[in-house]
Design a protein that fits this description.
The structure is a single chain. The protein is of the alpha/beta class and 333 residues long. It has a single domain, classed as TIM Barrel (Alpha-Beta Barrel). The chain is 37% helix and 17% strand. The strands form 3 sheets. Strands 3-4-5-8-9-10-11-12 form an 8-stranded parallel β-barrel, surrounded by 6 helices. Helix 4 crosses helix 5, helix 7 crosses helix 8 and helix 7 packs antiparallel against helix 10. It starts with a strand and ends in a 10-residue tail after the last helix. This is NADP-dependent oxidoreductase domain-containing protein.
Amino acid sequence: MEQRRLGSTGPLVSALGLGCMGMSDLYGPADRAEGLATIAMAVERGMTLLDTGDFYGMGHNEMLIGEALRSLPRESLAISVKFGALRGPDGEWNGYDSRPAAIRNFVAYSLRRLGTDYIDIYRPARLDPDVPIEESVGAMAELVKQGHIRHIGLSEVGAATIRRAHAVHPISDLQIEYSLLSRGIEEDILPTCRELGIGVTAYGVLSRGLISGHWSKNPNAGGDFRAFSPRFQGENLDRNLALAEALGRVAEARGVTPAQIAIAWVASRGSDIVPLVGARRRDRLEEALGALSVALDEAALAAIEAAIPPGAAAGARYPEAQLAHMDSERPRG
């Protein structure tokens, strides 16, 4: 599989990464055995980047990956971990904590759950409004010196925060949502990353299934967080599914699936971008891997842009209560 380096200082990873969140949390019930089989298949097929968060299933996702790692070549893999999100016993969200002492606590537990001596990329899940980013990055820089982590990443922060963090320690990559329905990073965040030599790991490349070609259910049951997403509600959902249908026609004309063309579009935006696919099953992973063989010429790119123009999505990508705390969504200046 093609390899892409995460920024100028980060690791060399597969051109497609596996996002493991859905194997434990937030998309309804998941099958443990199928999750393990999917991780094993991903590695067998050349995927080396596995992404998780210590709060996915309150540690369950890290333990799942840790179980998978027992029979996988650890040194050839890059494990990316997000930390800092606080959750309660009922799954509720209670803010973020990126104090230096908390970071050392979080990483200790992650290392134990993963069953590894180091984490390849460690990043705060969101900006903690009560802790200067310089303090958080400084604490992670100490962990790099001590060998507990190898690279420092960021997630869902804006250009100004990226600059402040990078001034303390080189940042390997920014993890942020990027898809045909979510192109906000193109204005300021992506140019800033490129100026500083910071890569992008793009999640939500299928807009949580909206443009996958497989959306056919109401998310209101089984703990699926999409039930609260503005893009999955009422008229917004109807409008977004119409966009998905238009993309489906473009894909069909080229003999590929909507998911494959959507993933290929993100991958085509630059060699410094690595799409993360949240496949929970081997059949979905097989389909996603097919995106690597999709070549998009100028005609195809024009057809995709016509099907889903910039800004066409109906509804925000997160509920307002969450957007209010996302540094990446703050106006410039």
